[in-house]
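Before going further, learn to read the protein records used in this course. Taken together, the tokens spell out the fold as the letters spell out the chain. A record is reproduced here so that you can trace the correspondence yourselves:

***
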Amino acid sequence: MAYPRSVNAAEPPQSPVSALEPWPDTVHWQRISTDLIWVELLRLAMGLAVLLVGLALGWAFTGHWLFGAGCAVVLLGGGWRVATIVRAVHAWGYAERADDLLVRHGLLVRRLSIVPYSRMQFVDVSAGPLERAFDLATVQLHTAAAASDARVPGLRPAEAARLRDRLTALGEDRAEGL
């Protein structure tokens, strides 16, 4: 599907022709770090380990075949999730435009969040233990509407701080006119 392109570089890019094609090709998308794949895989491994240990103990103590079947289902689901984690991380992106920030993600259900700078209340940067181990951080945008909050995971701390400062400055500039 073709998207209309702006003739003048100063003009903001036009919206996609269809709401069903949410990734406008007129936008310069920034990708997140692929190190986020390792963070998500480790989180998955920890969760699967807990489930498998519980199922294995149940199988060892009772000998019931359902515990063995549960182990097989957990392993199959884990294998499927490994494949989707890799693709899901590659689907994340963000773009800074003149008046708003675009955040995209999703495989089966694509999601495009457009957050106007003037609507931002505050910007939060966080990094859990696994993220810090891989030198990553998450930028969380908070607006008045809770459903419109957007986040950008998998950023290097320097890029997260730069994005936080830029969004905060743009938010303050745009809010002055309100």
Notes: Helices lie at 35-62, 65-91, 129-133, 157-175. Confidence is low (pLDDT under 50) at residues 1-9.
